[in-house]
Amino acid sequence: MTIKRMKWLDLGRIDYEASYIIQEQLHRKRKNGEVSDIIIFQECNPVITIGTSGTEDHLLLSKKVLLEKGIDVVYCNRGGDITYHGPGQLVISPVLNIRNHGLKILQYIRLLEQSVINLLSHYEVIGKRIEGASGVWVNGKKIASVGIAIKNGITLHGIALNIRPDLSHFGFIIPCGLKDVEITSLEHLNTAKLELDQVRDDFLKEFALLFDVCIEQEDMQRGGY
Amino acid sequence: MNYELKVPKFAEGATIIKIKQWLCQTGDHVREGEAVAEASTDKIAIYIESPIDGLVHSILAAEGEEVYIDQVIAIISSGEEGENVL
């Protein structure tokens, strides 16, 4: 039996739009068969992103005021409504050919969520899915949000896990367009202080088990990122 | 020869799928693998690609319309003589 191999790449702290350019490049290369599947990790500078189902109606402050607070507002091509990304949050974006994994898109999303649920158990946090909603929830509060796009059978975007972001920034939007949704983080749940690198490595273990893949680090210099 | 452009099977399980926008018009030339329509569900943006190089013969689902898996949403014509696959 052939072992499926893929790569991971950590862009560190980066502007959302700059990271998306890299993601699109890798998507194009994946489509052309020049690279394997790859998981991109990043910690974004503060940004509010509006997905294909979203509108500015779910912004609770003007874009001008948000910009003054150092928070950019960006439209993007992922599914879903509006969300916030910022320091202390790990954004995980697999560029994955789901056909090669024999997955339908919803199966893929459920596995992605399950990877995070299994990851949370490392820190003695019980994450769950909620019927009719996506993402991962802890005690009725959302800790990880999902939003993806799929082109040519290959995924873009993914899941964002709150480790220790400034949760007050979620108060500038109606997260996911759902009123009364509360957001939480690992820090808020009083787990020991976690570094994003540690969470990334723990996630990779869980993802590899669930997707039955061997994941190696991509060489940043060779890739020219 | 005419080809049916369908809502892809990999979207199976998604609750409500709607055509968000067409990225082409009737009469446009499209290339194999080119995204010609964007559909969306609650959390997923799905780009639907042309199966062939050809001309957009007809568009069969309107923007905002709810569609289902395997539904034919457009006809792409290769412009070649031969058996019609429809």
Automatic annotation (TrEMBL), chain A:
Active site: 176 (acyl-thioester intermediate)
Top-level class of the enzyme under EC nomenclature: transferase
Residue ranges of every copy of the BPL/LPL catalytic domain listed in the record: 33-215
A single MF term (Gene Ontology): lipoyl(octanoyl) transferase activity
Signal sequence annotation: none
Pathway in which the depicted protein is active: Protein modification; protein lipoylation via endogenous pathway; protein N(6)-(lipoyl)lysine from octanoyl-[acyl-carrier-protein]: step 1/2
Transmembrane segments: none
Pfam families assigned to the protein according to its UniProt record, in alphabetical order: LplA-B_cat (PF21948)
Annotated positions for site Lowers pKa of active site Cys: 142
Gene3D superfamilies the UniProt entry points to: Bira Bifunctional Protein, Domain 2
Main location per the UniProt record: cytoplasm
Reaction catalysed by this enzyme: octanoyl-[ACP] + L-lysyl-[protein] = N(6)-octanoyl-L-lysyl-[protein] + holo-[ACP] + H(+)
Subcellular location: Cytoplasm
Entries under InterPro entries matching the protein: aa-tRNA-synth_II/BPL/LPL (IPR045864), BPL_LPL_catalytic (IPR004143), Octanoyltransferase (IPR000544)
Keyword annotations of the record: Acyltransferase, Cytoplasm, Transferase
Binding site for substrate: 78-85, 145-147, 158-160
EC number: 2.3.1.181
DNA repair keyword on record: no
Function in brief: Catalyzes the transfer of endogenously produced octanoic acid from octanoyl-acyl-carrier-protein onto the lipoyl domains of lipoate-dependent enzymes. Lipoyl-ACP can also act as a substrate although octanoyl-ACP is likely to be the physiological substrate.
Miscellaneous field: In the reaction, the free carboxyl group of octanoic acid is attached via an amide linkage to the epsilon-amino group of a specific lysine residue of lipoyl domains of lipoate-dependent enzymes.
Record HAMAP family: LipB
Family named by the database record: Belongs to the LipB family.
Protein name (database record): Octanoyltransferase
Lineage: Bacteria, Bacillati, Bacillota, Clostridia, Peptostreptococcales
Automatic annotation (TrEMBL), chain B:
GO molecular function, one term: lipoic acid binding
Record domain Lipoyl-binding: where: 2-77
Pfam name, any one: Biotin_lipoyl
InterPro entries assigned to the protein according to its UniProt record, in alphabetical order: 2-oxoA_DH_lipoyl-BS, 2-oxoacid_DH_E2_comp, Biotin_lipoyl, Single_hybrid_motif
Cofactor needs: (R)-lipoate
Keyword terms of this UniProt record: Acyltransferase, Lipoyl, Transferase
PROSITE patterns on file: BIOTINYL_LIPOYL (PS50968), LIPOYL (PS00189)
Gene Ontology CC: cytoplasm
PANTHER family tied to this protein: DIHYDROLIPOAMIDE ACETYLTRANSFERASE COMPONENT OF PYRUVATE DEHYDROGENASE COMPLEX, LIPOAMIDE ACYLTRANSFERASE COMPONENT OF BRANCHED-CHAIN ALPHA-KETO ACID DEHYDROGENASE COMPLEX, MITOCHONDRIAL
Listed name of the protein: Biotin-requiring enzyme
Taxonomic lineage from the root: Bacteria, Bacillati, Bacillota, Clostridia, Peptostreptococcales
